[in-house]
């Protein structure tokens, strides 16, 4: 069993660490590093139409520009977290930031879809190095009494970046080309690199075991196949042959990975972590919180721009209150957790988020005012913000400080899987209702006019508006297409949100059942397991000794 060089429960040991006095300034640059990652996904979404026109990218190429980042990021998180524990978390953060800068520059200079896809995949690799390092440095630098507040600020910045991305992207696109959404990363990365070098303390597992090569070889393609299958299911169907093959490959590889990790002495991901509900329960809660957040954001941007008619910048500005509510609630959650405990704070936050989603499922329509939307956004974001930080603190507090990198990587992996599932499942639910809604157009529109365009209309609401905007389309026919598509989209969106609110209510109940009120560290479980093993060995030894005595007595 690996141990940290200091007792994580003794705050005086932290005072002797390099960088302890500057830990709050160090946290500032950790958060700046995190902000680059959380902005990168959502800021790109607003640039997709411009990229598509400029590079003449097909629909599948656009999908790969988006997904290349997510796939490499999710696949490498566990490996990079383990390497950070072994070789040092500060060097991992600095290397990751440097590589993210190179990837951003390459993306900004891309003059083909192939180059942009490759750059996005490279950015995902860099992000997989950065993300676990940020959270594990916090766990190793801050004593337990301060750690929950530091993680609350970390979660607040993550939420802020996700929400601000569309606004920043919209503003950049109104003034500059799509290349600017990548150039903007460079000065932020430079600031994070310089500040981090000066203010962030290094830490690592001083008794790190040798690298778990089979674990690495199994986990990377296994996670890649799992996330790829989820993404493709959202684009195609859950029964598509490619999706089923991906899930099959993921099941086999990750199943072998679990068997290997349970038997290997120096496992990259010690499976005894999962016996601890502070770890497993909190990771489950986080996955479902991000599931709901990303699923709802997937709808809101399209709803505001296509149905309500806002520009990308106008829609982005209207999402800013959501990001600030999420950040404020996450920052305040540590104080709430102090009074209510981890279990009830997480459960309460998820229940509030469920209320926000239910409200929007009942109140949103094709002509809803922004004020009505804002109320739903604030309720949803506040609830999820309250839940996110104490759940993260539960994950990180449950693992030994020496394994903070792998704990952080597992936390990040569940977030990534939750986000991918949210977009895929919500998108599938919405798409089914949308297709049923636009199917009505076949019966009321002349086939000679509408027939060739039906595939475009049924593919997306954006496609429907594109067909309706054709100058040769009669005005009344154009209005019928737009009204029908808008109604079908909103019906699908609200039905998905209703189901999402039900999932969150069930998640809240699950949290009350599974999650301990006080975070339990996995070192305690490991010691308990070792004690059980020792007792079993002693019992077997006594049994063997008794059998030997009987053999001697009987002459056998």
Assigned CATH superfamily of the domain at 20-144 and 168-210 = MFS general substrate transporter like domains
State the end-to-end distance. 42 Å
The percentage helix is: over 70%
SSE order? HHHHHHHHHHHHHHHHHHHHHH
Major sheet summary line: none
Number of strand elements: 0
Radius of gyration, Cα only, in angstroms? Answer: 25 Å
**Overall pLDDT score:** 82
Highest CATH level, the class of the domain at 20-144 and 168-210: Mainly Alpha
The CATH topology of the domain at 20-144 and 168-210 is given as Growth Hormone, Chain: A
What's the CATH architecture of the domain at 20-144 and 168-210? Up-down Bundle
What's the assembly state of these chains?
A: single chain
Poorly predicted regions: 1-11
Strand content: under 5%
Structural class: mainly alpha
Total DSSP helices: 22
3D shape? globular
Features of this protein?
mainly alpha; Growth Hormone, Chain: A; disordered N terminus
């Amino acid at each position: 069993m690996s141990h940290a060089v200091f007792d994580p429960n003794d705050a005086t040991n932290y005072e002797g660490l390099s960088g302890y006095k500057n830990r709050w300034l160090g946290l500032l640059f950790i958060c700046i590093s995190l902000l680059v990652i959380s902005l990168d996904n959502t800021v790109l979404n607003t640039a997709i139409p411009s990229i598509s026109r400029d590079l003449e990218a097909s629909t599948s190429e656009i999908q790969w520009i988006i997904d290349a980042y997510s796939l490499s990021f999710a696949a490498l998180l566990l490996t990079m977290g383990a390497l950070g524990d072994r070789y040092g978390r500060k060097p991992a953060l600095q290397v990751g930031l440097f590589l993210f800068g190179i990837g951003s520059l390459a993306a900004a200079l891309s003059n083909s879809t192939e180059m942009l896809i490759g750059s996005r995949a490279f950015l995902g690799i860099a992000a997989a190095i950065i993300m676990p390092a940020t959270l594990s440095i916090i766990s190793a630098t801050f004593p337990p009494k301060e750690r929950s507040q530091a993680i609350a600020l970390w979660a607040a910045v993550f939420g802020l970046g996700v929400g601000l991305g569309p606004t920043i992207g919209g503003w950049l696109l109104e003034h500059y080309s799509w290349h600017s959404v990548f150039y903007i990363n460079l000065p932020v990365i430079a600031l994070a690199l310089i500040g981090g070098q000066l203010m962030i303390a290094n830490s690592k597992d001083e008794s790190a075991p040798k690298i778990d090569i089979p674990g690495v070889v199994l986990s990377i393609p296994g996670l890649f196949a799992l996330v790829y299958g989820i993404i493709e299911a959202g684009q195609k169907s859950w029964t598509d042959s490619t999706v089923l093959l991906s899930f099959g490959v993921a099941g086999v590889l990750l199943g072998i990975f679990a068997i290997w990790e349970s038997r290997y002495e120096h496992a990259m991901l010690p499976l005894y972590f999962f016996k601890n509900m502070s770890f497993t329960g909190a990771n489950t809660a986080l996955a479902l919180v991000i599931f709901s957040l990303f699923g709802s954001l997937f709808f809101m941007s399209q709803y505001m721009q296509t149905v309500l008619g806002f520009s990308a910048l106008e829609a982005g500005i209207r999402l800013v209150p959501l990001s600030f509510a999420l950040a404020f609630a996450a920052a305040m959650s540590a104080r709430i957790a102090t009074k209510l405990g981890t279990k009830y704070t997480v459960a309460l936050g998820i229940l509030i988020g469920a209320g926000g989603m239910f409200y929007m499922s009942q109140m949103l329509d094709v002509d809803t005012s922004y004020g009505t939307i804002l109320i739903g956004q604030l309720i949803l974001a506040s609830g999820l913000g309250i839940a996110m930080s104490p759940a993260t603190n539960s994950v990180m507090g449950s693992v030994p400080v020496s394994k903070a990198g792998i704990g952080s990587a597992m936390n990040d992996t569940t977030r990534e899987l939750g986000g991918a599932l949210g977009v895929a499942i919500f998108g599938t639910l919405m798409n089914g209702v949308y297709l049923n809604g636009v199917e009505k157009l076949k019966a009321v529109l002349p086939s000679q006019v509408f027939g060739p365009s039906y595939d475009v209309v049924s593919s997306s609401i954006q496609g429907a508006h594109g067909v309706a905007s054709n100058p040769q389309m009669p005005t009344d026919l154009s209005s019928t297409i737009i009204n029908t598509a808008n109604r079908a989209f909103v019906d699908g969106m609200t039905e998905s949100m209703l189901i999402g609110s039900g999932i969150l209510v069930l998640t809240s109940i699950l949290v009350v059942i599974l999650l301990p009120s006080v975070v339990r560290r996995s070192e305690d479980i490991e010691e308990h397991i070792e004690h059980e093993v020792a007792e079993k060995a002693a019992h077997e030894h006594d049994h063997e000794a008794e059998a030997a005595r009987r053999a001697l007595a009987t002459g056998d």
